[in-house]
TrEMBL record:
It comes from Cloacibacillus porcorum. Pfam families: Aminotran_3 (PF00202). This is Glutamate-1-semialdehyde 2,1-aminomutase. The lineage of its organism: Bacteria, Thermotogati, Synergistota, Synergistia, Synergistales. It catalyses: (S)-4-amino-5-oxopentanoate = 5-aminolevulinate. It is found in: Cytoplasm. Its cofactor is pyridoxal 5'-phosphate. The modification N6-(pyridoxal phosphate)lysine is found at residue 267. HAMAP family: HemL_aminotrans_3. Pathway: Porphyrin-containing compound metabolism; protoporphyrin-IX biosynthesis; 5-aminolevulinate from L-glutamyl-tRNA(Glu): step 2/2. Belongs to the class-III pyridoxal-phosphate-dependent aminotransferase family. HemL subfamily. GO terms for biological process: protoporphyrinogen IX biosynthetic process. One of its GO terms (cellular component) is cytoplasm.
């Protein structure tokens, strides 16, 4: 049998790029497949290098809430590029972008643009450390905050034990300054604060866990974090790289009515181009250079083409509030439909999500934390993934990720997803 173009490309890529990909999850290892090389996207659909069409539920892992090649974003990019792609000087668009973000997100008084979510997080943590004069940071098990050294730490099993690095190459000393806590567990975070009084600079959290599959916050969890950080002189950081401008135009903080001290943004804020941002309280952000002593810089920060894309995306979302209502309704329909299907076939599955995010955990659930997410049957997820892909539905090639809906998904797309899911769930050997 002749090999496909995707297979040929992957073979060549593997000799040139580590693992053949520029970000590990794209290797499709956890579903036992080789990568789909994308050639083109339009709205809710993509075409691979062999011309096969898929309805896309990866959405570039979050940024594409408006769908692929959304015309106002593409136009803004082209227009900006014609004027010059980079200056290394401030531009008017950066001021407009900062104005827009501070208007949309209550509590963000100042904001600094960077080029990725990773950069946003490491910079926010540096600012928090600079502001508090403390070194320790608490993160939650199963939350992803980019690949900076101090965030590549998962839970040590013992309570409040120093973190163990998740990756080779992370200095033990760096990892030791990161404490980990169970998601949705306020009792544990209280114990961590009791054990490390006056040492914790910040608690960073995904206000909706979306990198262990989708795990919404339990009622009171975010409020509890707000209280305990404030009471202990630590900053609360919402990592809104996924939730920002996805849960609502006012982000997760507006959605839940909980105001952190700092926010990190990425993904949607760049409209599909490489953008991140961090911002928050004026007194904390005033620590950042050249105003204050916390150094942070970037040759391509606030890049005019990237700013134009992000600004066009955020403006489209702001001007069309109906988008969020429709996304929420389709998300609900997808989750309810899947739930019914798995019940019908007696499959141990738990469909979770919020607004335009969903995950099918192949475990009875409910999943409130990473240890519960890890009980999922990943082999069954791989079978489900393959069955759906064969029918032209592209989901994240890993159990512990979200399904991302975009404004371009139609009711018919959702209906087709459910028809396919019913076929796969009801098939022999599933
Ligand atoms: C994707 C993600 C990041 C990292 O962003 P990059 O742009 O990939 O560096 C950080 N935090 C969260 C919550 C994310 O989902």
């Amino acid at each position: 049998m002749s090999r496909s173009q995707c297979e040929r490309l992957f073979e060549e890529a593997q000799s040139l790029i580590p693992g053949g990909v520029n970000s590990p999850v794209r290797a499709f290892k956890s579903v036992g497949q080789t990568p789909i090389f994308a050639a083109r996207g339009e709205g809710a659909y993509i075409w691979d290098a062999d011309g096969k069409k898929y309805t896309d539920y990866i959405g570039s892992w979050g940024p594409l809430i408006l769908g692929h090649a959304y015309a106002p974003v593409v136009d803004a990019v082209c227009e900006a590029a014609h004027e010059g792609t980079s200056f290394g000087l401030p531009t008017a668009m950066e001021v407009e972008m900062a104005r827009l973000i501070t208007e949309l997100v209550k509590g963000v008084e100042m904001v600094r643009m960077v080029s990725s979510g990773t950069e946003a997080v490491l910079s926010a943590i540096r600012a928090a450390r600079g502001f508090t004069g403390r070194e320790m940071v608490v993160k939650f098990e199963g939350c992803y905050h980019g690949h900076s050294d101090s965030m590549l730490v998962k839970a040590g099993s013992g309570l409040a034990t120093a973190g163990q690095p998740d990756s080779a190459g992370v200095p033990a000393n760096t990892a030791a300054a990161t404490l980990t806590c169970r998601y949705n567990d306020l009792e544990e975070i209280k114990k961590i604060f009791a054990a490390h009084k006056d040492e914790i600079a910040a608690v960073i959290v995904e206000p909706v866990g979306a990198n262990m599959g989708v795990v919404p916050p339990a009622p009171g969890f975010l409020e509890g974090l707000r209280e305990i950080t404030a009471a202990n002189g630590a900053l609360l950081i919402f990592d809104e790289v996924i939730t920002g401008f996805r849960l609502s135009i006012n982000c997760a903080s507006g959605y839940f009515g909980v105001t952190p001290d700092l926010w990190t943004f990425g993904k949607i804020i760049g409209g599909g181009l490489p953008v991140g941002a961090y911002g928050g309280r004026r007194d904390v952000m005033s620590m950042v250079a050249p105003l204050g002593p916390v150094y942070q810089a970037g040759t391509l920060s606030g890049n005019p083409v990237a700013m134009a894309a992000g600004f066009a995306a955020l403006t489209a979302l702001r001007e069309n509030p109906l988008i969020y209502r429709e996304l929420a309704a389709r998300g609900e329909r997808l989750r309810a439909g899947l739930d019914k299907i798995f019940k019908k076939y007696g499959v141990a599955a738990c469909v979770q999500g919020i607004e335009s995010l969903a995950t099918i955990f192949f475990t009875a659930g409910p999943v409130k934390s990473y240890d519960e997410a890890k009980k999922s049957d990943t082999a069954r997820y791989a079978r489900f993934w393959s069955g759906m892909a064969a029918r032209g539905i592209l989901m994240a090639p890993s159990q512990f990720e979200a399904l991302f809906l975009c404004a371009a998904h139609s009711d018919e797309d959702i209906e087709y997803f459910l028809v396919c899911a019913d076929e796969v769930a009801g098939s022999e050997g599933f």
